[in-house]
Amino acid sequence: MAQDIRVLHLISGGDTGGAKTHVISLVSGLSRIVDTQLVTLMASDFTEDARALDLPVTLLDQKNRFDLTVVKKLKEIIRRGNINIIHTHGARANFISTFLKRDFPEIPIVTTIHSDYLLDDYRGGPLVSWLFRKINYLALRSIDYYIGVSDAFKNMMIERGFGNEDRVFSIYNGVDFNLEHLVTTDKKAFLEKHGVEFSPELVYVGIMGRLDPVKNHRLFIEMARVAYGKRQNLRFLIAGSGALEPELKALVKASHLERVVSFLGFLEQPNDFYNAIDINVMTSKSESFPYAMLEGARLKKPLVSTDVGGLGRVIQNAETGYLAIEPSALALSQGVVDLADHPERRRVMGEKLYEVVKENYSLEKFIQGHIKIYHKLLEEKQ
After folding, report:
1. In the chain, which residues have pLDDT < 50?
2. pTM
3. How many other C-beta atoms can be found within 10 angstroms of the C-beta atom of residue 33?
4. Angle at which helices 363-381 and 17-30 pack, to 10 degrees?
């Protein structure tokens, strides 16, 4: 029975973007059905957002990555809550979990694979990133089970020798279609708030995501240059923050696109962004099953994207969007220009994408998929 599950979710708390949405959505949904605890390792917006949603969150306030005093506190939480599943998210949580196995060999530890761990970047430069990738790899090797957020990530873990289908699973992200007041600001007000020219004659093309190398915003800017050269009614919006912002702004200036490319920064209300754009774009080098697609679909925005992760499950060319045959500015711009030129096609494709996502990738299916896996792990440990 579901009530027999007592799961602890462990995450650093510094997460943003899709990983943050994933964990908060998961814990929020699970806590209504099974005994669920969320532990974060640092004070952050993530922790505060979890508290604001009244989630069962405990902050341990780890001083740095190698502050192992949190291990003793975690052991106390596990014993006090009679936890029978430990579920980690991210490199720091994976590392900490290795110190729990000796005391709790009977408790299965499972981690969610949110990204390709070989491509993850860490603050501190290339050497620091190399070191932490290596530590995360070793930590991953000690974990019992893995949940990829796409079949691509599941297959990646199997191919890299982390186990077979008895140890490696996949659950696609899901979004809540029952939310009220999804949009808080209308299109015109949103654009004017961010200093973006508004006109019914203009077509707005947007990308949402942290300004990180794996998101490949340079390709988005190059696509904007090519597409704008064909259609001067296009405007391009970049939502997100990150270390690459100065470099990307310099590229926009060098490309003479300052008038048509706008940087909006980190947005507290991503749905207002998706409501304001007409075409959703992703240019990532690697993805799982991104919330940027799902959240755009919820507001009926067709997607033009590089062909990464699980996007091929929902994006059918000329039906729900366009997946570029090759990750080039020209290929992406062709999809953008086609949708810009045909408003009715854009509307129909957005509607179709909405229906596909609502039918197959709801929050309910996302939660039930985890509960099913938890039962399997507990059965195997008995």
Report:
1. 1-3
2. 0.87
3. 14
4. 70
The Cα-based distances of 351 to 192, 204, 237, 344 in angstroms read 27, 18, 22, 11
Beta pairing, strands 321-324 & 303-306: parallel
pLDDT of residue 125: 79
For residue 232, which phi and psi values (nearest 5 degrees)? -80, 0
Phi and psi at residue 321, to the nearest 5°: 155, -160
Per-residue pLDDT tens digits for 104-134 = 999 999 999 988 898 887 777 788 888 889 9
Place of tokens 């060999």: 105
Tokens at 304, concatenated: 């033009």
CB 306 within 8 A of CB 283: yes
Check if 2-174+362-381 and 187-360 are the same fold.
Answer: yes
Interior angle at CA 175, CA 320 and CA 282, nearest 5: 45
Q: Are 85 and 63 in contact (CB under 8 A)?
A: no
Residues 52 and 24: their CA atoms lie apart, in Å, by 11
Give 2-174+362-381's CATH code, choosing from 3.40.50.1980, 3.90.228.20, 3.40.50.2000, 2.10.109.10: 3.40.50.2000
- Given this model, what pLDDT does residue 171 score? 96
The answer to whether 341 and 231 have CB atoms below 8 angstroms apart is yes
Return all residues near 367 (Cβ < 8 A) that are at least 6 apart: 26, 29, 30, 33, 174
Which residues, at least 6 apart from 109, have a Cβ–Cβ distance to it below 8 Å? 86, 87, 88, 97, 100, 101, 143, 144, 145
Q: How many helices and strands (H and E) does the chain possess? A: 14, 13
The per-residue pLDDT for 66 is: 87
| Architecture per CATH, 187-360 | 3-Layer(aba) Sandwich (3.40)
Residue-wise pLDDT for 292-348, tens only, equals 999 999 999 999 999 998 899 999 999 999 999 899 999 999 999 999 999 999 999
Q: What is the domain partition of the chain in residue ranges?
A: 2-174+362-381, 187-360
pLDDT at residue 295, as a whole number: 96
- pLDDT of 16: 75
